[in-house]
From TrEMBL:
<dbReference type="InterPro" id="IPR029787">
    <property type="entry name" value="Nucleotide_cyclase"/>
</dbReference>
<feature type="domain" description="GGDEF">
    <location>
        <begin position="315"/>
        <end position="446"/>
    </location>
</feature>
<feature type="transmembrane region" description="Helical">
    <location>
        <begin position="123"/>
        <end position="144"/>
    </location>
</feature>
<dbReference type="Pfam" id="PF00990">
    <property type="entry name" value="GGDEF"/>
</dbReference>
<dbReference type="GO" id="GO:0052621">
    <property type="term" value="F:diguanylate cyclase activity"/>
</dbReference>
<feature type="transmembrane region" description="Helical">
    <location>
        <begin position="232"/>
        <end position="249"/>
    </location>
</feature>
<dbReference type="InterPro" id="IPR050469">
    <property type="entry name" value="Diguanylate_Cyclase"/>
</dbReference>
<feature type="transmembrane region" description="Helical">
    <location>
        <begin position="181"/>
        <end position="200"/>
    </location>
</feature>
<dbReference type="GO" id="GO:1902201">
    <property type="term" value="P:negative regulation of bacterial-type flagellum-dependent cell motility"/>
</dbReference>
<protein>
    <recommendedName>
        <fullName>diguanylate cyclase</fullName>
        <ecNumber>2.7.7.65</ecNumber>
    </recommendedName>
</protein>
<dbReference type="InterPro" id="IPR043128">
    <property type="entry name" value="Rev_trsase/Diguanyl_cyclase"/>
</dbReference>
<keyword id="KW-0472">Membrane</keyword>
<keyword id="KW-0812">Transmembrane</keyword>
<dbReference type="InterPro" id="IPR000160">
    <property type="entry name" value="GGDEF_dom"/>
</dbReference>
<dbReference type="GO" id="GO:0043709">
    <property type="term" value="P:cell adhesion involved in single-species biofilm formation"/>
</dbReference>
<dbReference type="GO" id="GO:0005886">
    <property type="term" value="C:plasma membrane"/>
</dbReference>
<feature type="transmembrane region" description="Helical">
    <location>
        <begin position="156"/>
        <end position="175"/>
    </location>
</feature>
Length: 461
């Protein structure tokens, strides 16, 4: 084969590329480290709680918050194994990506060598490297398919890394010794590959040591025994120093990457804990502790939503105000504990009698309020009557046997009415029901009598 003289443009391109790669890698790694979250412990959690502007945390919120934050330490201690497993699988994915782009590196090497290295040598190197590469990719694919578990697949990944280093190291056996400039370019290319791999194997650095260890051993052996390069010893020394230094620095980088993964995991866990603590606190703040139904606060919000819906979508809604009759007697005769049981049983019975979309709140004492969305007065009266009958029909408690009745006032939201007016009208309807004998349903407006048998009386507010 006719070996041509080196072309200066090719030399320049090769040198520029091979020197730019390590620099670009270092920039990429630095960016990566900056992107990882900062130390969680340095975040001003307590300052956040102490901030007066715009946010006044309630005591249960502070308690839940502190509890979640206090778990940071235990999270950071216990998640090392999780970070290791995550780092391993991240490395496997990065390695597959790197291997799929390896042919780009080969093409570059072939381009540099074309016309300067005998074709047979180029083909021999390419064939060996491609064979090793295909085997590695196959193994890696199997590892990924099996879920890449560090305890199971550790040695397989080390083998793949070693073969990766072997393929590149072989280049010195086949391609070096034909042209001094080309030799230098190939050395720069090997340094570039080493540098790229510092990032590829960043989250599982022991595999990186396998890769560069084999790459160094094979390439130094190739330089010293197989190549005819006059600078073989210099190249071997240079390559050795470069790879050793890269290995040394990549260890620190890998440690920080792992710390980043660890903190990212802890951060996610903490955020989830805080979210659920917050949800619990929000739920606690909106429910009545005794009956488990919504409280006044939640009721106010729900009524506001309904008013908005009514304004936008012209959907009518009605409310039922329920007051247990002679409840004081129960307390007086059977005690407050039984009174509480009655309230609980009443709430349970009431809830069971409603649609899932209906809203049931304890309004205070022995009073409950039900909101029936998209319900006009006629239907609301029927619902109220059904509830009244159900309560009156069977006892709420068996031991002691307690049977109660309930008086119910019904009112429907009208356009332009306020929530306070709506509640006042329902309250007046209950008052009317109590005054006319209890255990009955009263509407708050004039309404024609219904076939349901509900006792409708003119009740003008
Ligand atoms: N056990 C118990 N009793 C409560 C609770 N909240 C309010 N009460 C009592 O409920 C009773 C309500 O009594 P009243 O307002 O006189 O009403 P009533 O006895 O039901 O009479 P009418 O409503 O006129 O039929 C009071 O004795 C309150 O102390 C509670 O959470 N548990």
């Amino acid at each position: 084969m006719n070996i041509k003289n080196p072309r200066s443009s090719l030399e320049n391109a090769g040198f520029c590329f091979c020197s730019a790669v390590p620099a670009a890698q270092q920039i990429a790694i630095s960016r990566l480290l900056v992107c990882y979250p900062r130390q969680l412990n340095q975040l001003p959690w307590d300052n956040f709680l102490a901030q007066p502007a715009g946010f006044t945390p309630s005591p249960p919120f502070i308690q839940a918050y502190r509890q979640a934050v206090s778990t940071i330490d235990s999270i950071s201690q216990s998640d090392t194994a999780i970070a290791r497993a995550k780092g391993f699988s991240e490395c496997v994915i990065a390695l597959r990506r790197a291997l799929t782009t390896t042919p780009v590196g080969w093409s570059l090497a072939v381009w540099f060598c074309w016309g300067r290295v005998p074709l047979g040598s180029i083909v021999s190197w390419l064939a060996t490297a491609a064979f090793v590469w295909a085997g590695s990719l196959f193994v890696l694919q199997r590892v990924i398919g099996a879920g890449s578990k560090v305890d199971v697949h550790r040695s397989w990944v080390h083998w793949v890394a070693a073969l990766d280093g072997f393929g590149w190291g072989l280049s010195t056996w086949f391609l070096v010794g034909y042209d001094p400039v080309l030799d230098a370019i190939l050395m720069a290319l090997l340094c570039g590959v080493t540098s790229i791999n510092a990032q590829v194997y960043g989250t599982y650095v022991s595999a990186y040591y396998s890769q560069i260890g084999v790459q160094l051993a094979v390439s130094v052996l190739g330089l010293l025994t197989a190549s005819n390069s006059p600078s073989a010893l210099d190249f071997a020394a240079g390559l050795g120093v470069f790879i050793a230094l890269t290995a040394y620095y990549s260890r620190a980088i890998a440690q920080r990457l792992m710390e980043g993964i660890r903190l990212q995991y802890a951060n996610g866990l903490l955020a989830a804990q805080l979210r659920s603590a917050l949800q619990k606190v929000e739920l606690d703040a909106a429910t009545d502790a005794l009956t488990g139904q919504w409280n006044r606060r939640a009721l106010d919000n729900f009524l506001k939503q309904q008013v908005e819906l009514q304004t936008v979508a012209y959907q009518p809604f009605s409310i039922l105000m329920l007051d247990i009759d002679f409840f004081k007697q129960i307390n007086d005769e059977l005690g407050h504990m039984v009174g509480d049981d009655v309230l609980r049983a009443f709430a349970h019975r009431l809830r069971a009698d409603l649609r899932p979309g209906d809203f049931c709140a304890r309004f205070g004492g022995e009073e409950f309020l039900v909101v029936l969305p998209q319900t006009a007065l006629g239907v609301a009266l029927e619902v109220a009557e059904r509830i009244r009958k159900g309560i009156a029909q069977s006892p709420l408690l068996e031991k002691p046997r307690v049977q109660v009745t309930v008086s119910i006032g019904v009112s429907t939201m009208e356009q332009g009415q306020s929530i306070a007016e709506l509640l006042a009208r329902a309250d007046a309807a209950v008052y009317h029901a109590k005054n006319t004998g209890r255990n009955q349903v009263r509407p708050s407006v004039n309404m024609p009598a219904q076939a349901s048998g509900v006792a409708h009386q003119d009740f003008l507010m």
